[in-house]
């Protein structure tokens, strides 16, 4: 019955509607009590053969029933509103947190597990907070009230009711620890299964290509079976809880009835008192029964509470303490000064004393063999991580001095992994600049080399894309992402293998157009295919986390070294392809 701190915190977001929902729930319980008391009086009158009060008593019973119907509806609406407020605020907070944590978080957490926490976990918290908590408060107040009434009317009944009530409320607490452990086990399995399914769906083309669909299905079936086992294990403990509660409720009601009958036989009780015991004893346990029902609805929230707390308090890889606004009057110079960085758990540094300058308003290319540290360099520029040593400066100011939001708005990125949403092409483009006109969209798309293809579609820019842009080719997706980055109009443009899916003949043209359109922006280009970067104002050659050389294409080719090997490798590769 100890409320998890994360759930208490969630409840505080809707304090007022929750209080109203609890009071209304209490009022509903009072209508039950009133109905029981009125029926007891009516039955006692009938037993005595007195009928003059009966119509009034029965009318009052009907009024209690009608009032309960009205109060019940009002209560459910209020509780639903409270739950919705909690749910929306919690999801907002978690999404904002994910934004702060950035992509680095997903190298340790699985997307499917995060989704399960955000969707199912938060739904569970809603049920717990809006349904279980009000019922818990009612359960802690109504039965003592009934006991107090019966203590006056028929004290002997308390001998049966009090122990039963204590057993119903405290007995299941003996299993709390076990229930928590089973709940965690169930939640972890549920989260894992969600993550596996999402991964399998997203990776279906790769699984097909590797002929691994069957194996994956078997693995998912095993996971489903594990979830079934975890659910049954949890249910077993829950059922033991429910069993004890039911036993206490039935036993307590029967004992109270027997004691009341015994009192009648002994002549120490009145008919009214006996009927009151018979009817109120069951009302005394109604909140306990309802609590058990709401527990099942809100249980997921308890299981998810740890995961939600972990996500909400996860420490970001970088601290967002900078305040500079990144509103450079002219495109900034980018400077890396003796930058060192080693990934957590890695033995060798990804970057080991990297220094170079990307001049303001110019295009700087970063090339190097696979694993040289190119992506890491960009990740440090965007502050997905902070360097272990050295500095990254934008416009002469360390990146950490800018607020993360400002920094990420000042740097537009197009990466190899483009993400397009299930929305129209225009909506996907306007994500970068909501106020962009149709002409702006067309101009950006033209520069990115995709306008003609969009215009040829029956619905043009109003064409709805499949999830992740599934209805487009890889090259079209990349060119749309390029257009989106151009629309963002950020003073720094980062192209990370941004044209790798575009065919080579087209690539050179697009890059040329792009660099023209980039105007005086500071552009950083990472590309494997050197044709895409040979015209860059400056080329930085990285190798094994170090700068091997800096120069322009012709100078670097003449100098030999890593760059020449890359050029040679590119030629051989093309030769192979042609063969
Ligand atoms: N999340 C990570 N955890 C541990 N090591 C990593 C991580 N990401 C990259 N590395 C390592 O850091 C080094 C640099 O990787 P990086 O991705 O920056 O290279 P890259 O030049 O971009 O390679 P590619 O051209 O293949 O994309 C590599 O040795 C890589 O294995």
TrEMBL record:
Its main location: membrane. The chain crosses the membrane at residues 54-71, 145-169. It is a multi-pass membrane protein. GO terms for cellular component: plasma membrane. One of its GO terms (molecular function) is ABC-type transporter activity. Residues 19-300 form the ABC transmembrane type-1 domain. Keywords: ATP-binding, Cell inner membrane, Cell membrane, Membrane, Nucleotide-binding, Transmembrane, Transmembrane helix, Transport. It comes from the Bacteria. PROSITE patterns: ABC_TM1F, ABC_TRANSPORTER_1, ABC_TRANSPORTER_2. Residues 334-569 form the ABC transporter domain. Gene3D superfamilies: ABC transporter type 1, transmembrane domain, P-loop containing nucleotide triphosphate hydrolases. It is found in: Cell inner membrane. Belongs to the ABC transporter superfamily. Siderophore-Fe(3+) uptake transporter (SIUT) (TC 3.A.1.21) family. This is ATP-binding cassette domain-containing protein.
């Amino acid at each position: 019955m100890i409320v998890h701190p994360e759930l208490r915190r969630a409840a505080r977001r809707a304090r007022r509607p929750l209080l109203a929902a609890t009071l209304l729930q209490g009022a509903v319980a009072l209508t039950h009590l009133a109905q029981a008391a009125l029926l007891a009086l009516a039955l006692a009158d009938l037993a005595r053969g007195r009928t003059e009060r009966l119509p009034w008593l029965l009318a009052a019973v009907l009024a209690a029933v009608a009032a309960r119907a009205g109060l019940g509806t009002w209560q459910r609406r209020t509780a639903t509103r409270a739950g919705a407020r909690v749910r929306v605020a919690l999801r907002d907070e978690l999404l904002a947190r994910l934004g702060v944590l950035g992509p680095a978080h997903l190298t340790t957490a699985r997307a499917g597990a995060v989704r399960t926490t955000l969707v199912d976990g938060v739904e569970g918290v809603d049920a717990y907070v809006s349904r279980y908590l009000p019922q818990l408060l009612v359960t802690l107040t109504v039965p003592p009230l009934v006991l107090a009434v019966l203590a006056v009317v028929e004290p002997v009944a308390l001998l049966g009711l009090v122990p039963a009530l204590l057993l119903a409320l405290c007995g299941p607490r003996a299993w709390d620890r076990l229930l928590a452990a089973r709940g965690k086990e169930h939640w972890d399995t549920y989260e894992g299964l969600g993550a596996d399914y999402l991964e399998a769906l997203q990776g279906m083309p790769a699984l097909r290509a590797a002929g691994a669909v069957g194996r994956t299905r078997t693995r998912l079936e095993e996971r489903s079976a594990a979830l079934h086992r975890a659910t049954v294990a949890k249910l077993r403990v829950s059922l033991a809880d429910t069993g004890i509660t039911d036993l206490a409720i039935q036993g307590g009601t029967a004992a109270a009835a027997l004691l009341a009958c015994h009192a009648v036989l002994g002549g120490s009780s009145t008919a009214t008192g006996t009927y009151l015991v018979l009817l109120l004893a069951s009302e005394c346990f109604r909140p306990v029964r309802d609590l058990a029902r709401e527990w099942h609805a809100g249980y997921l929230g308890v299981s998810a509470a740890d995961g939600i707390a972990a996500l909400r308090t996860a420490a970001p890889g970088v601290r967002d303490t900078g305040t500079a606004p990144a509103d450079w009057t002219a495109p900034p110079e980018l400077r890396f000064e003796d930058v060192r960085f080693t990934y957590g758990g890695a033995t060798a540094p990804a970057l080991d004393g990297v220094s170079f300058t990307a001049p303001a308003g110019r295009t700087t290319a970063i090339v190097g063999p696979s694993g040289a540290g190119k992506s890491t360099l960009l990740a440090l520029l965007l502050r997905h991580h902070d360097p272990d040593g050295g500095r990254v400066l934008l416009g002469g100011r360390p990146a950490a001095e800018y607020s993360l939001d400002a920094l990420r708005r000042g740097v537009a990125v197009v990466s190899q992994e483009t993400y397009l949403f299930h929305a129209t092409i225009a909506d996907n483009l306007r994500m970068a600049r909501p106020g962009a006109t149709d002409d702006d969209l067309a101009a950006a798309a033209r520069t990115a080399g995709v306008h003609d293809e969009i215009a040829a579609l029956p619905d043009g820019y109003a064409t709805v894309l499949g999830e992740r842009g599934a209805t487009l080719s890889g090259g079209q997706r990349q060119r749309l992402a390029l257009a989106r980055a151009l629309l963002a109009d950020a003073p720094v443009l980062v192209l990370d293998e941004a044209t790798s899916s575009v065919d080579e003949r087209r690539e050179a043209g697009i890059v040329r157009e792009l660099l023209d359109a980039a105007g005086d922006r500071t552009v950083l280009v990472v590309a494997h295919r050197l044709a895409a970067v040979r015209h860059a104002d400056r080329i930085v050659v990285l190798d094994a986390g170090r700068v091997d050389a800096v120069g322009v294409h012709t100078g670097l080719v003449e100098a030999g070294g890593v760059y020449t090997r890359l050029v040679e490798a590119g030629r051989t590769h093309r030769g192979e392809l042609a063969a």
